[in-house]
Amino acid sequence: MRYYSTNGEAPIADLHKAVVKGLAEDRGLYMPEEIKKLPKVFFENIQDMTFQQIAYNVASAFFGDDVDLDALQDIVYDTLSFDCPVVNLKDNIYALELFHGPTLAFKDVGARFMARLLQYFIRMEGKEQVNVLVATSGDTGSAVANGFLGVDGIHVYVLYPKGKVSPIQECQFTTLGKNITAIEVDGVFDDCQTLVKNAFMDKELNNHMKLTSANSINVARFLPQAFYYFNAYARMKAMGKADNLVICVPSGNFGNICAALFGHEMGLPVKRFIAANNANDIFYKYLQTGIYDPKPSVQTLANAMDVGDPSNFARIYNLYGKSHEKITSLISGATYNDDRIRESMRECHHSCSYILDPHGACGYQALVEGLKENEVGVFCETAHPAKFKEKVDEILGIDVEIPERLAAFMKGEKQSVAMSKDFVDFKKYLMAR
Ligand SMILES: *Cc1c(COP(=O)(O)O)cnc(C)c1O
Fold it and tell me: 3-class SS at 300?
């Protein structure tokens, strides 16, 4: 498969290059030149297939030209060692629980898939070690660190702002050891991101070691999220509920919903999509006005969706030939402030006995308000409520149980390298490695 850049000024890349580079030379996002439709017989039998089997079929259509099929199957099966159930909350509203991966984040799938795909390409190339740099304000760091843990040939450096990530999140990437090094930066998230960007631009450093990023705009990180939607469709079809399906995705950087839309282009029978936002309503406003007007993000309860300039907008825009009309005929939007999020969490807990996290609450509420007669709605519950325990406990007046898997991280010993926010120090550290 050939990949072009959404900015149209960079050379065409193959999958290998698109995965290693992440962003194209013109700072655009890589898009596949064609999206293959899956055969009719696949959809006829999908309800009898496992998550792994479904995902392998989808992955073959996307990556099968560039990756040996046995290796691809291995990568997919290793990535999806858990299930993502759909749970009926009430009437025609279903929650698709995307938080059953190793760090209880839906980002686990993209992170693991990318780690294994990168390893596959490194092995083909030779022995040179690749170093992944990732700046995090919390969730991305834990998903990437756990996805790459123990993958040989790759070393990961997670840069995070000292004192600014939650204790649970910090444990998820500082207790791992092996090929994961946590770097505690005396600064804020933006300082971490600046250090990473400077490292990629530094010639001397790039001659010394091979550097790459595990940014969420990487094709190997966002595309595998399409697996979720084919699997959800299969589970709904098995229940006889898949005829007028509405998929609702709580969105921040729009990678997850973008993967769902790619799935739709591959033939996934979904009637329409809803992008649910918190108070960061840039996409919502675009749908209403046709004008995309990015703004600095505002802080909300659903902080993984605090994005003021969603990167994957460019992908969605290109996918539909830059047509506002096409986009609005398939996708609608919703936006909720923190008060509304709290209210939805309480209402859902009361009427469905279900504990939503603040992100999932946006998706739930958009279906409560937007579902039409005869439609069946599935929204993504993107995080386990225990990941936002302090907030959820306070809003619902309960004591959310911390799952064993999450608690296990907290028992490990925290190890990190203290770093100033001065690039000279960071470079010196890496040059000595
Ligand atoms: C990352 C994240 C989102 C937003 O996903 P995008 O792909 O950036 O739109 C929503 N909820 C949670 C819990 C997340 O971690």
Answer: coil
Tell me how crowded residue 82 is: count the other CB atoms within 10 A of its CB: 12
Q: How does pLDDT run across 258-302, given as a tens digit for each residue? A: 999 999 999 999 999 999 999 999 999 999 999 999 998 899 999
Q: Which two tokens stand for residue 187?
A: 């600064």
Measured from CB, residues less than 6 Å from any atom of ligand 1 are 105, 107, 139, 250-256, 304-305, 359, 382-383
- Residue 4 Cα to ligand 1 midpoint, Å, equals 25
d(CA 253, CA 29): 13
59 pLDDT band, cuts 50/70/90, is very high
pLDDT at 409: 87
Measured from the CA of 99, which atom of ligand 1 is nearest? 13
Going 72 to 261 to 263 to 39, the CA torsion angle's sign is: negative
- Range scoring the smallest mean pLDDT among 39-53, 267-281, 399-413: 399-413
pLDDT score of 406: 87
pLDDT in tens, 227-254: 999 999 999 999 999 999 999 999 999 9
Q: Report how far ligand 1's centroid is from the alpha carbon of 368 (Å).
A: 20
Q: What is the pLDDT of residue 282?
A: 97
Q: Whose CA is nearest to atom 14 of ligand 1?
A: 304
d(CA 48, CA 389): 36
Pocket test for ligand 1, best of 257, 359, 381, 384 (most atoms within 8 A of CB): 359
Q: Report yes or no on whether pTM surpasses 0.85.
A: yes
Nearest Cα to Cα of residue 158 among 176, 150, 168: 176
Burial letters for 372-405: b for 16+ Cβ neighbours within 10 Å, e otherwise?
eeeebbbbbbbbbbbbbbebbeebbeeebebeee
- Using the mean position of ligand 1's atoms as its centre, give its distance from the Cα of residue 226 in Å: 14
If one residue of 256, 274, 278 were mutated to test the ligand 1 pocket, choosing by the most ligand atoms within 8 A of its CB, it would be 256
Catalytic annotation, pick one of 17, 21, 107, 322: 107
Nearest CA to ligand 1 atom 2: 304
Mean pLDDT for all residues in the chain: 95
- 107 catalytic? Reply is yes
List phi, psi (to 5°) of 11. Answer: -65, 155
Residue 337 confidence (pLDDT): 98
- Probe ligand 1: pick from 100, 103, 106, 297, max atoms within 8 Å of CB? 106
Residue labelled with tokens 């655009």: 28
**Which residues, 6+ apart, have CB-to-CB distance to 164 below 8 Å?**
137, 188, 189
